[in-house]
Amino acid sequence: MFLKTYGTSKPTRYTFSEVKKMARRFKEKVGQGGYGSVYKGKLPNGVPVAVKMLENSTAEGGEFINEVATIGRIHHANIVQLLGFCSEGTRQALIYEFMPNESLERYIFSNGSNAYHQLLVPNKMLDVSLGIARGMEYLHQGCNQRIIHFDIKPHNILLDYNFNPKISDFGLAKLCARDQSIVTLTAARGTLGYIAPELYSRNFGGISYKSDVYSFGMLVLEMVSGRRNSDPSVGSQNDVYLPEWIYQKIVTGQDLVLTLDMAEEEKEKVRQLAIVALWCIQWNPKNRPSMTKVVNMLTGRLQNLEIPPKPFVSSENQQMA
Predict the structure, then answer these.
(1) Are 56 and 74 in contact (CB under 8 A)?
(2) Are residues 294 and 172 in the same domain?
(3) pTM of the model
């Protein structure tokens, strides 16, 4: 029923044999996720595309329709464009514009390789953060319906030819009215380490677009530190919870990035980016900025941002939390 009503508008619906031809019989695999595999392909007009073949498609039927319905109508410089889809029985595919520089995850956790140094210099970090923030602001404020992504993390931020970031993977996204502040979910959704506290426990507040803001904050903390955010509940004794480690450095005025030789001005930029991120991960959703405010903080050249209150329960109390 959905496909009938939707079939007339963009994106294009393809047959499975067209998809097979497009993906050159699935020879060149470029990625793998929980949902299935991604192959490099070409549209008949020569435009390179990524073809995402969904496996376990009976279970993922909802996610597939969600993705087509949610991002099929979106055009934004910082959101990956869905060009087409295929649905023939259990064969389901999504066709996206091709992102040659893969995901942000590869650069953040590349252990000081050249790629990391090229992309994660302070100015580029700021550009990437701002691009993601603009894409998220559009999802939260710019569409007829508010779209909450629920899985913002480095793996879902893809980079185009110029390393501009684009948000991808809307399988968990939820559409809601723009004036609806609180969303009801039956279970926490997202990826461990990026999930806002209110998704685990209502004591922290209602679930809303502010849950995405939290995930964005965690992503930026990983970017400025080059470290993975180990989830507080699984951290070993010697592994300090990332936000806590960064907060201490900010409060005591220490440098965050030790691997790069940076001018004072650049160090300050990284510090201010970290402060924006710490505002985004406040435990109480009411204390987190909206993405519009984040964009303003990032474009206002980040001067004199106030250090937020401690955004976490400190390690000693974690067992109780």
Answers:
(1) no
(2) yes
(3) 0.87
